[in-house]
């Protein structure tokens, strides 16, 4: 059966999903004007929100759709920042370095994928964490980083603070929109269908001719580039790079929290999880250790009573999943 014939049997996007997409487009336009109207503090907070959404979408792509549970994505967050530091030190302007560093990190992710993707479930999860710690230790020995003291991207200080903040905001907004749209396009295509088949039953997927390693490798690299891009944007906004922070396990914890609370394996769930996490961070972030304990409590409550997250609560009420990646077939007439 031809692709055109198959496409003809798939139901078009529901009206509700079209309204969500339209609202998202209008929201993006409004957000594009925000740095010209809002105070600096709001702009800085929105940059962090965009970064969190990228993190959530990338980890969900990896774990929710490909079944690759990683607790070491901080390796690529830190590598992105470190590559940016090195490139700026070599003379590359800082703003282009944001994207070039992410691509370079993707090249390293390709090399790592040749080894880690041959491991199974628990082995893969542990290996990703070990790799992150090893890379952090290696980076700490670089004289430019000065151990745990860290270094700063001083080239960013050459720009006026208002211009720097506005540029980083717009780059973060475009990157976030690109990550969300790119994930949508990928999951709606053949790779997305193959990834979900692998997630559900890798042996069965392989038996019908799916190249499981190739699909997992593609998603692993894309998720790594996305996390690296979020890391470079974070570095651009904070200016200072420290291995303990850049390679900190907290990044993976944040990703896991946002995806599980929002709804793993759903498209809109991680975005909702990022919004909730951002709100909790803003309200309770000043409480120190109590804030972290509160996050743990929220995660436990969701695991016990809402294991499918916020989107799962919506589904339990009998509604369809918003922006679902599942393909609905047309019923034959008569």
Tell me what you see in this structure.
The chain is mainly α and 334 residues long. The protein has a domain at 31-248. The chain contains 15 helices and 2 strands. The protein has helices at residues 3-8, 15-37, 40-65, 74-89, 94-116, 121-140, 161-188, 190-200, 202-207, 212-238, 243-246, 250-262, 269-284, 289-305, 309-316; strands at 151-152, 240-241. It has a two-stranded antiparallel sheet. α4 (74-89) packs across α5 and α4 runs parallel beside α6 (121-140). The two termini are 22 Å apart. Mean pLDDT is 90; it is low at 4-8.
Number of strands: 2
| Count of alpha/pi helices | 15
Task: Write down the Rg.
Answer: 20 Å
What string, H for helix and E for strand, traces the elements in order?
HHHHHHEHHHHEHHHHH
- Strands of the widest sheet, in order across it, are 1-2
Name the helicity range.
over 70%
Shape label: globular
Reported for the largest beta sheet, the result is: 2 strands, antiparallel
* Poorly predicted ranges: 4-8
Mean pLDDT: 90
Gap between N and C termini: 22 Å
Structural class: mainly alpha
Q: What percent strand?
A: under 5%
